[in-house]
Amino acid sequence: MGRPRLSELRQRQWGALLLAALLVLPAGIRDIYMIRVLDLAGLYVLLALGLNIVVGYAGLLDLGYVAFYAVGAYLYALLASPQFGFHLPFLLIFVLGGVLAAIAGVLIGYPTLRLRGDYLAIVTMAFGEIVRILMNNLDSVTNGPQGIMQIDELSLFGFHLNTPLRIYYLVLLLCALTVTLVRNLEQSKIGRAWAAIREDEEAARGMGLNTRNLKLLAFAMGATTAGVAGVIFAGLQQFVSPESFTFWESILILCMVVLGGMGSIPGVIVGSVVLVVLPEFLRHYADYRMLFFGLALIVMMLLRPEGLWPNRRRGRELHESSAAPPGGAG
User: Fold this and answer.
1) Backbone angles phi, psi at 81, to 5 degrees
2) Domain range spanning residue 87?
3) Which helix (H) or strand (E) holds 112?
4) Quick check: is 262 in a domain?
5) Could you point out which of 185, 203, 235, 254 has its C-alpha 20 to 30 Å from the C-alpha of 70?
């Protein structure tokens, strides 16, 4: 193996500096509420990183992504609350949440292998709504619209994660591990195969790539990330209900990926933090903040459609396509 390129070394240095800054960030925050906002921002970073695998790398438009988030959250709620009298360890449910969400990802991915674009979006959107409606109507299992309360606090090896600060460091660790995993995937043969499928699936199949298994892998890995994020969410809130997993949550996570830059890990992180933290700063303008929020997204898409921190390859492709004459080269 050769030496890392200069750009890779710089990225590692910036990543190490960012991680160090995030480790000491809570020391300068006295407001517990703001720590909880950071916890939610970290969870959305996990969700956006998972959706970025499906949308940004494999080019599969998934509008039902929040369903996998719900699977992890409700699994923890059912197995660690008085609902059925189970109080299983957090680590066990954490693993089960990821596995069950991955299975759900494969189950929704397999029937949609031949679909792309709008058709895939419609099917995945329907799947997300089916899961939410099931959670809402299965009163005997999920307690229906009233949700499940008194969920056990998170606990790892006897250490109780019962404060927003402790959960912050758990979420930060998970984000760091996920970023490392996703970055290695992006630079691997699998990542390059996903890029080939995204650009031209027929050409990728003609080159001998098993597009079916690769697409299923993208669905499964994205769903796994959402599942473990759901487990953390249930432990953080100690309450879950179907209202937390609506279609608009899927849209919000997709906006984070698009706003930050599809296929870009730093961009997805920036997009997630901006869309979680920005509404908090606009809280004093509660009647108008969603208007500001929507206008900001529109302006962003018009002026910088590649995202806040775009992937270099996708940014070049977008600018080249916009600069090309309408009728081609002639």
Assistant:
1) -160, 170
2) 32-244
3) none
4) no
5) 185
Judging by DSSP bridges, how do beta strands 154-156 and 159-161 pair with one another? antiparallel
Cα 26 from Cα 30, distance rounded (Å): 8
Would 291 be classed as within a structural domain? no
Q: SS3 letters for 139-197?
A: HHHHCHHHCECCCCCEEECCEEECCHHHHHHHHHHHHHHHHHHHHHHHCCHHHHHHHHH
Instruction: Name the least confident of 20-34, 54-68, 159-173.
Output: 20-34
pLDDT in tens, 280-297: 877 777 677 777 777 877
User: Given this model, what pLDDT does residue 147 score?
Assistant: 95
How many domains is the chain partitioned into structurally? 1
On whether residue 122 sits in a domain, the answer given is: yes
Cα angle, residue 275 at apex, residues 272 and 281 outer, rounded to 5°: 130
Would you state the pLDDT for residue 1?
43
* pLDDT, the chain, mean: 88
Residue 318 lies in a domain: no
What torsion, rounded to 10 degrees, do the Cα atoms 188, 190, 194, 197 define? 120
- Point out which residues pair with 154 in neighbouring strands: 161
CA 58/CA 63 separation, integer angstroms: 14
> What mean pLDDT do residues 25-53 have?
92
Rounded to two decimals, the pTM is 0.91
